[in-house]
Specification:
2 copies of one chain form a homodimer. In chain A, helix 2 packs across helix 3 and helix 4 packs across helix 6. The termini of chain A are far apart. The longest helix of chain A is centred in the C-terminal third of the chain and has 35 residues. Chain A has a 3-stranded antiparallel beta sheet with strand order 1-3-2. In chain A, 28% of the residues are buried. Chain A has 2 domains: 80 residues, Arc Repressor Mutant, subunit A (Orthogonal Bundle); 76 residues. By secondary structure, chain A is mainly alpha-helical. At the A-B interface, helix 6, helix 7 and helix 8 of A face helix 6, helix 7 and helix 8 of B. Chain A binds a DNA duplex through helix 2 and helix 3.
DNA sequence: AAAGGCATGTAAGGTGTTACATGATTGT
DNA sequence: ACAATCATGTAACACCTTACATGCCTTT
């Protein structure tokens, strides 16, 4: 029987690194630059996090590093995905969207979507978008209940209802995400028509 | 000269705890329940984070704990804000909104707003909302530049533009936040009229 | 008597943050 | 010669996550 310790799940940073390296082989410094200069930088920060993460991924054999400028004191390590690294990424991209993903890991969800185009085919991307949209509809029911209790509760005079307004922002963010998902779904259907035309 | 080590900034969890305890004195267990059962739970997780955070805040003398059921093996510690705790909270709530806050600490920003009603007066709340709305307008200029480059870059045939769509989601989220801020501003102006009426 | 909620905590482990260190290469 | 950029890393520290431990009190 295939019995091995289940490895801890990958962090957002590790997933971002795998996705970027799948686009093309890259060195640590290249990745630092991407995080510094693009909105992808939302998922990282600094060499102090990136280099250790690359080493972890190499230890897990999801990445393989080949050394350029060998013999020099400052070699440049260029990483590529290993077959099992690609497998891991594709499995990640193909997962179903859970309630927990939407509530606790929405950033990972967006990261996942942004790499899906390179990793999986249209049917899986569309399923992802439908699951996001439908999952949010379910979430909103719970939030509306809380919103109702906040509308009922009376505040001391002079205290402005910022707590309620903050909750409304949360609800609107979810609604915006659902609208985006449905619009993206429609756009991807158009792309399909373009391909045929 | 008043020379003391600048203390590290408070974490989101610590700020949430201070804000909740300012509403009324609470024990660790009460706080756990709030995080488990309300959307405030977004900011925490588990006793394993909450109890150490309470202890840290007590060491800093931002909280003071009084022991109920003393002598028992399982005492109940009820925490209240100290004067300097209240000072710290109010200073936090009164800060100007920076570019960095919007890009890197948007969750803290929402937390801040949700407690502002209890902590500061209308003028500061309205300034906060204006700074959020205007700050986002500036941010969006940079994101639109990136969006332009993504529209120009050609993808390999068959690869769907999920990266671009993800960026569009990010931009729409910011736009939604700005719209919310302006709407909240209008609503708070109405409350002012109600008070006078 | 057992189960479940009240109530507080500790321990191990891993990750991110910040700051620092090092040296090579390229441009002026 | 000097500065900036390329390029990789380490060390200290603090925090969160998960899992576990403990014992009281109330209900069934």
């Amino acid at each position: 029987m295939n019995r091995m310790k289940t490895p801890r799940p990958l962090t957002n940073l590790e997933l971002a690194l795998l996705g970027l390296i799948q686009q093309e082989p890259r060195a640590g410094y290249d990745l630092c630059k991407i995080f510094e200069t693009t909105p992808m930088g939302h998922y990282s920060s600094s060499p102090g996090a990136i280099y250790p993460a690359l080493k972890r991924l190499e230890n897990r054999e999801l990445l393989a590093g080949t050394v350029e400028r060998a013999g020099s004191m400052r070699p440049r390590r260029v990483y590529s995905l290993t077959p099992s690294g690609l497998e891991e990424l594709e499995a990640w991209a193909s997962q179903a969207v859970t309630h927990e993903d939407l509530v606790w890991r929405s950033e990972e969800l967006i990261l996942r979507f942004s790499f899906m185009g390179q990793l999986v085919d249209r049917s899986i991307i569309c399923r992802f978008l439908r699951e996001v949209a439908d999952g949010i509809d379910a979430l909103l029911l719970g939030l509306e209940a809380h919103h109702g209790t906040m509308l009922d509760s009376r505040l001391p005079p002079g205290v402005l209802p910022t707590g309620r307004l903050a909750l409304e922002l949360g609800m609107e963010s979810y609604q915006g995400l659902a609208r985006w998902a449905r619009r993206a779904l429609a756009e991807l259907a158009d792309v399909e028509l373009d391909d045929k035309g």
